[in-house]
Specification:
The structure holds 2 protein chains of 2 kinds.
Chain A lengths: L2 E5 L3 H13 L3 E5 L2 H10 L4 E5 L7 H10 L8 E5 L4 H9 L4 E4 L4 H13 L12
Parallel strand pairs in A: 1-2, 1-3, 3-4, 4-5
Chain B lengths: L1 H47 L3 H8 L6 H8 L3 H15 L5 H12 L2 H8 L5 H14 L5 H7 L5 H14 L5 H6 L9 H11 L4 H7 L5 H13 L6 H10 L3 H14 L5 H6 L7 H14 L5 H7 L5 H13 L3 H11 L5 H24 L1
Helix pairs in contact in B: 1-4, 2-3, 2-4, 4-5, 6-7, 7-9, 8-9, 9-11, 11-13, 12-13, 13-15, 14-15, 15-17, 17-19, 18-19, 19-20, 19-21, 20-21
The chains are: A alpha/beta, B mainly alpha.
């Protein structure tokens, strides 16, 4: 089963995203801060991470940077989920290595589609095959 | 004398005692009220906890399940009262049909009606919370109340109302939002700008009209937003402001906006704005805008501006030439490699070396 890690300090968002992705057939682990999420990813790498940007302590941008700087996690697909929709913030998201950027308020159905789309890209897996 | 001073001392002690007593009572009241509110919120959350899964399931649904919606709608009394604030919060975080159904339910149960009434409360906090609720539901029913709150006596309420109008996407309120930046009880221009950006293209007509406002700040904010939203249709209006406005600030924003919009017809007015007879700040922004515009026709002027006596103008000209490839880059390389110890050569070399440094850093990161 494809595993997704979700990190958001907002309980409502965390539960919404976890519910929707579980309903879509993914195994979901949810965390409420960036540090715990990063630790969990290093302990057991998920297939994709969905990260809120504005979290206390480590932001989604910080987590993404650290993932990309570590050879063990550098190719992990990341989707950033945030209320910050200005052009500069979107550009920052992609500059730190995010694969996609979803703006809040978000459509749960659209988020699932984006997770599927990112996972289906050939480079989403180290062996170059698309996820099933 | 002694008796008078004794009496005065006694009065002073009594007054101090009264003040201390009052302070203690007030403190106890504040602490007590906070403790009561905290306890009430914990009670509410305990009641909501078993309802949360139902709420999350509905909010996350692709298709509306009448049975689930019916269960939510059937909540009564204390359970509905407890669930209502959570329902308002959750629906504000999602988009889609499910959200529409949740907002309709809130409307049916009178939540929006009560919020509208609360916008007239005595307390600023109550009015602000009501404005927040109206904004989060995205329902235009509250727009007249929010427009009224743009003139509220409390600055925080005015800001919440402005943000709420942005969240609703209330295009008819765009003019009111713009006028709010220039009033005595104003709304910060950054808050209004964010709200107008959220409204987006539907606000364009009001923004274009506002470029002719008698108030400088209104014109400036309108032009800034039109530039940020790359409103091509507003180009001629912005050009007029660049060429004819009395306010240097408005002209500066117009120059920046024309660069962002990127229409070739902006070349001529931007070139004019780089003349030495123009204010320095305007010249700098116009030179930068020519780079953003990226029109090869700007290269000869920018090349001459490398030797401008104003350092910021010359260095900005060098950076703008970098953005107009290949002609601008060719000019920079030629100027940099000439055996000249003049400022133009230095600016050219500086701009090229910054780019080389940036490229090296990017390559290192990619590797």
């Amino acid at each position: 089963m494809t595993s997704v890690l979700v990190a958001d300090d907002d309980r409502d968002i965390r539960e919404l995203v976890a519910f929707k992705l579980t309903q879509a057939g993914y195994e979901v682990r949810a965390f409420e801060d960036g540090s715990a999420a990063l630790q969990a990813m290093r302990a057991r790498l998920p297939d994709i991470a969905v990260l809120d940007v504005m979290m206390p302590g480590l932001t989604g941008f910080d987590v993404c940077r650290q993932l990309r700087a570590d050879p063990a996690t550098e190719s992990l697909p990341v989707i950033l989920l945030t209320a910050r929709a200005q052009e500069g913030d979107v550009a920052t998201g992609f500059a730190v290595g995010a694969d996609d950027y979803v703006v809040k308020p978000f459509s749960p159905r659209e988020l699932v589609s984006r997770v599927q789309a990112v996972l289906n890209r050939p480079q989403a897996r180290p062996d170059g095959r698309a996820a099933t | 004398m002694t008796s008078a001073s004794g009496q005065a001392g006694q009065l002073l002690r009594l007054a101090l005692l009264a003040i201390i007593t009052l302070l203690v009572v007030l403190s106890l009241l504040i602490i007590g009220r906070r403790a009561w509110r905290s306890a009430a919120e914990r009670r509410r959350l305990r009641i909501v906890e078993p309802i949360r899964p139902l709420l999350i399931t509905i909010a996350a649904s692709d298709e509306l399940d009448p049975e689930l919606l019916g269960r939510l709608a059937a909540l009564r009394g204390a359970r509905w009262k407890a669930a209502e604030p959570t329902l308002v919060e959750v629906q504000g975080k999602v988009r889609g049909d499910a959200r529409g159904a949740l907002v309709a339910l809130l409307d049916q149960r009178g939540t929006l009606r009560r919020a509208r009434r609360r916008t007239r409360r005595l307390g600023a906090v109550g009015r602000a919370v009501a404005a927040e609720v109206l904004g989060s539901t995205g329902n235009s029913i509250g727009v007249p109340d929010l427009v009224r709150l743009l003139r509220d006596r409390d600055a925080e309420v005015r800001q919440v109302a402005a943000r709420a109008l942005g969240r609703i996407g209330a295009a008819p309120a765009a003019g009111d939002l713009l006028r709010a930046v220039a009033r005595k009880r104003d709304v910060p221009s950054s808050v209004v700008a964010q709200a107008l950006l959220r409204i987006g293209a539907p606000a364009q007509l009001a923004l274009v009209t506002a470029t002719r406002s008698s108030q400088e700040l209104v014109r400036a904010v309108a032009i800034e937003i039109l530039g940020l939203t790359r409103a091509v249709g507003a180009g001629p209006h912005i050009r007029l402001r660049l060429e004819w406005d009395d306010s240097p600030e408005v002209r500066i924003r117009a120059a920046r906006a024309l660069g962002r919009i990127g229409m070739p017809s902006a070349l001529s007015p931007l070139l004019d704005a780089t003349r030495r007879s123009c204010p320095v700040a305007l010249r700098i922004v116009a030179v930068g805008a020519l780079g953003e515009l990226g029109h090869p026709g700007a290269v000869p002027r920018l090349a001459r501006l490398l030797a401008d006596p104003t350092h910021r103008v010359a260095s900005t000209a060098a950076r703008s030439l970098l953005q107009i490839s290949p002609d601008g880059v060719r000019v920079l390389r030629r100027t940099a490699s000439a055996e000249l110890d003049c400022s133009c050569a230095r600016h050219a070399r500086d701009a090229l070396s910054r780019t080389a440094l940036r490229n090296t850093a990017d390559d290192a990161e990619a590797a």
